[in-house]
Write a structure and sequence with these properties.
About 15% of the residues lie in helices and about 45% in strands. It has helices at about 1-15, 120-125, 155-170; strands at about 15-25, 25-30, 40-45, 45, 55, 60-65, 75-80, 90-95, 105-115, 130-135, 140-145, 185-190, 190-195, 205-215, 220-225, 230-240, 240-245.
Length: about 250
């Protein structure tokens, strides 16, 4: 009996009741493809205001745990939807996020929803933007939002596009270099600026300049002093986050 009591005391001395984070405060904004705020869009259990902003409140719970044990992971999945628009979902994850303190905030950034059946042009998604790009011998030019700006929306649609882009990037550079470094292309009012790293350490780079012209809603002509990119392209797939162009012979 004495040993049993000592055992219980030892357990109580090495354990405690702690507050865990189930979901942080999540903030962001929902816009349409023209950059206009979408009011009364449902995000989780809340709705956006007149300017498209939302704020999901924090959720917490109490857990009886032992001293030294790792904090549990936090996985967030919240629907973003409004009638007449293609839905999306905020997706976030932190391996030890359950140990975060009260008041922790995760920004979801600007989330763009496309109207159902909406027709958009290549000009709308490319003009006056900067993209990470890759090109292939087969004449494909693909781009994704610049990941170093830290303002990429944390949604399932964006992550699916990013995964696709990274897979293509890996295939394009297979056996050519140690790191699969994407290059950057700035589309600026008809002017092009294309920076390409020449080494794995990302120290030396070459910058090419040129012009682009939209010949139709889905065809663009690129002129520049880069032999692999100076071509006419037809859009295979594109949205606010990703584009895939195929060279027209």
């Amino acid at each position: 009996m004495k040993n049993y009591v000592l055992f219980l005391i030892s357990i109580l001395c090495t354990s405690c009741l702690v507050s865990r984070m189930a979901r942080p405060i999540i903030t962001g904004r929902v816009l349409d493809y023209q950059g206009n705020p979408i009011e009364k869009c449902q995000v989780g259990e809340v709705f956006t205001d007149k300017k498209g902003y939302f704020r999901l409140p924090e959720k917490r719970y109490h857990e009886f745990t032992f001293i030294g044990f790792e904090a549990p992971p936090v996985y967030v999945s919240e629907e973003v939807k409004k009638e007449g628009y293609e839905p999306d979902a905020i997706v976030m994850m932190s391996r030890y996020g359950g140990g975060n303190r009260r008041g922790t905030l995760w920004p979801a950034n600007d989330i763009y929803l496309k109207r159902i059946g909406e027709k958009i042009t290549l000009k709308e998604v490319l003009d006056n933007t900067e993209r990470e790009v890759i090109y292939t011998k087969e004449g494909q030019l693909m781009g994704f939002l610049c990941t170093d700006t830290r303002d990429i929306p944390s949604t399932s649609r964006v992550y699916d596009r990013l995964k696709m882009f990274n897979n293509i990037k890996e295939e394009a550079y297979q056996g050519k270099r140690k790191y699969y470094v994407a290059t950057k292309m700035l589309f600026d009012k008809g002017e092009l600026c294309f920076s390409e790293y020449l080494d794995d350490e990302m120290i030396r780079d070459t910058t090419y300049y040129g012009r682009y012209e939209f010949l139709s809603d889905s065809i663009v002509q690129i002129e520049m002093n880069h032999p692999e990119i100076k071509r006419k392209y037809r859009a295979e797939d594109f949205d606010k986050y990703f584009f895939s162009l195929k060279a027209i012979e």
